[in-house]
Design a protein that fits this description.
Mean pLDDT: 94
Distance between the termini: 16 Å
CATH architecture: Alpha-Beta Barrel
CATH topology: TIM Barrel
Number of helices: 12
Structural class: alpha/beta
Strand content: 5-15%
Radius of gyration: 17 Å
CATH superfamily: Metal-dependent hydrolases
Helix content: 40-55%
Shape: globular
Strand order of the largest sheet: 4-5-6-7-8
Order of helices and strands: HEHHEHEHEHHEHEHEHEHH
């Protein structure tokens, strides 16, 4: 299925790959989404779909998004194997699930190899939900295991709206993790640090770390968004929505409205995501 095919042929817009989304097993979604909505501390949030994979695909269709990375987060060590198994079960041509290894999980290296052998492309690491700083030795161990297995790693960066202002995922810690594992294909979400964008400009912009746009457009001052983009290598910029915590169609429109060259928009919306996943770019 190519929901964006007609408009692309007419030359109106490029292909779109959303590198930051979430969904849950159907039964879990019924309780997880309300709990996450109630847990927001900074401002009220409402999910834009029901939290299932079917709901995510429907939202992608409405937005003209062809493919997405689906991120899971292991909040307890015992969840790790189940998340890997579920991720494998929902993988498709359109959905690239990322598994998750908790910092207190015993056999990190073996699970990373199992994830890669199953055909998955990466891991998600969330310092707040895992109670582990991004540059903690346990996080570094996971990053090294991911790199050794050929996996990419999506890392939450900056503050999180479900927590008070904690320093677990600061742009400086992003930089330290990159320095510790320079061979890792690493993504720092929310343009390198949610609500810490000045620090992201100083600490992360310019490094070979992937940055994505979710929860940033419309929240970060536009001039600062452009300063980060201008300083960062073009091939390390990605488009993300953090759905269901945004409306994907609106996020696509916000990105397309940016004053950027069309060639760069095409790279950010599609080609760079393939590079992050280790896939060859296609026309």
């Amino acid at each position: 299925m190519d929901p964006a095919g007609k408009s692309r042929k007419e030359g109106r817009r490029p292909r779109v790959f959303d590198v930051h989304t979430h969904a849950f097993p159907d039964k879990l979604a019924q309780t997880a989404i309300p709990q996450l909505e109630k847990g927001a501390l900074w401002f009220p949030i409402r999910a834009s779909h029901d939290g299932t994979v079917a709901g995510l695909l429907a939202a992608m269709n409405r937005a003209g998004i062809e493919r997405a990375i689906l991120c899971s987060v292991a909040t307890r060590p015992q969840q790790v194997p189940k998340i890997t198994d579920w991720s494998v079960s929902v993988a498709s041509e359109r959905i690239a699930p990322f598994a998750s290894i908790h910092p207190d999980f015993a056999d990190v290296e073996a699970e990373a190899e199992r994830i890669a052998a199953a055909g998955l492309k990466g891991l998600k690491f969330h310092p707040e939900y895992m109670a582990c700083p991004l540059d903690d030795p346990r996080a570094v161990r996971i990053a090294r295991a991911a790199a050794a297995a050929g996996l990419a790693m999506v890392c939450h960066a900056g503050y999180d709206l479900a927590y008070e202002k904690e320093d677990l995922a600061s742009p400086r810690r992003v930089r330290r993790l990159h320095k510790a594992v320079p061979g890792l294909r690493m993504m720092a979400c929310h343009m390198g640090g949610w609500q810490r964008w000045e620090e992201a400009l100083d600490e992360v912009a310019g490094l070979p770390i992937y940055l994505e746009t979710s929860m940033t457009l419309g929240r970060c001052p536009p001039d600062l968004v452009h300063r980060i983009i201008d300083k960062h290598p073009n091939e390390y910029l990605l488009f993300g929505t953090d759905a269901p915590w945004s409306v994907p169609k609106e996020e696509v429109e916000k990105f397309l409205a940016l004053d950027l060259p069309q060639a760069l928009k095409r790279r950010v919306l599609w080609d760079n995501a393939l590079g992050f996943l280790g896939e060859a770019a296609t026309a």
